[in-house]
Amino acid sequence: MSGWMKNVMTMTVENVKTNDAAINIIVKKISGIYENGKHFHIRCMTHIINIVVKMLLKHEVYHVKNLQDVVKYIRTFPQRIKTFKQAMKDVAVESQRFLCGETPTRWNSTFELLRSAYDVKDAFLEYSHQHPMFHKTVGRVPSHSDFEMIKKMMEFLEKFKKKTEKVLCSTKPIFHTYTREILDIEQHLRKHETNPDLCLWYRI
Questions:
Q1: Looking at the DSSP assignment, which residues form a beta bridge with residue 106?
Q2: What pLDDT digit, counting tens, does each position of 6-57 carry?
Q3: Distance between CA 203 and CA 38 in Å, rounded?
Q4: Across 78-98, average pLDDT
Q5: Other residues' Cβ atoms within 10 Å of the Cβ of residue 120
Q6: Per-residue pLDDT at 200
Q7: Rounded Cα gap, residues 7 and 134, in angstroms
Q8: What does residue 178 show for φ and ψ, rounded to 5 degrees?
Q9: What confidence tens digit (pLDDT) does each residue in 147-160 have?
């Protein structure tokens, strides 16, 4: 192992216990590593951001929960999808994107769901007219006030999305920017912690 690892200074992996154990094994196998491997394991910045945002989103928000239920309902069956696409055409929605689903392990899938739904917000009311069972099953159509709150949440979450993309899209070492990026996120959190529009759900 030491042969192919001789030019490796650090290793970045996701922050899970199995990876911690693997790193410890590697460090023990490598002789003469810098400060006995004290700085060998570099925590994954995108994974840290993912954890932070998931903690923010763990508090159920009425506006978001309603929209999540509605999108899930529409995406469940091909006929509902077809009807919603027709509703998009009928109200002349400019966006060509369809409603995005969610992936439990990826917080940004929630962001994409909110953004895709916001872009076609005018189609929901039209869809409810074309699909009578919608009201009986879901209960209510996302309203103007729902989308106003969704917009504010999207603006808040945009910072985390950009930071994640900046790290994932980089083909060069960016560890030297880590502290600056994390401090920028901290400043963003503190800026919004007293925001009356977000404080009801934004609490860690």
A1: 103
A2: 666 666 766 667 777 777 777 777 766 666 666 676 667 777 777 777 777 6
A3: 33
A4: 91
A5: 21
A6: 47
A7: 60
A8: -55, -50
A9: 988 898 888 888 88
Burial class (CB in 10 A: 0-12, 13-18, 19+), 102: middle
What count of Cα atoms within 13 Å lies in the side-chain half-sphere of residue 145? 4
pLDDT at 78: 94
The type of residue at 126 is E
Q: Hey, what are 47's tokens? A: 């994974």
Per domain, the residue ranges of the chain are 2-43, 52-192
pLDDT digits (tens, 9 = 90+) for 166-203: 766 666 666 666 677 778 878 887 877 777 666 545 54
Using H for helix, E for strand and C for coil, what is the string for the chain?
CHHHHCCCCCEEECCCHHHHHHHHHHHHHCCCCHHHHCCCEEECHHHHHHHHHHHHHCCCCHHHHHHHHHHHHHHHCHHHHHHHHHHHHHCCCCCCCCCCCCECCEHHHHHHHHHHHHHCCCHHHHHHHHCCHHHHHHCCCCCHHHHHHHHHHHHHHHHHHHHHHHHHCCCCCCHHHHHHHHHHHHHHHHHHCCCCCCCCCCCC
Q: 93 and 121 in contact (C-beta within 8 Å)?
A: no
Rounded CA separation 197/40 (Å): 42
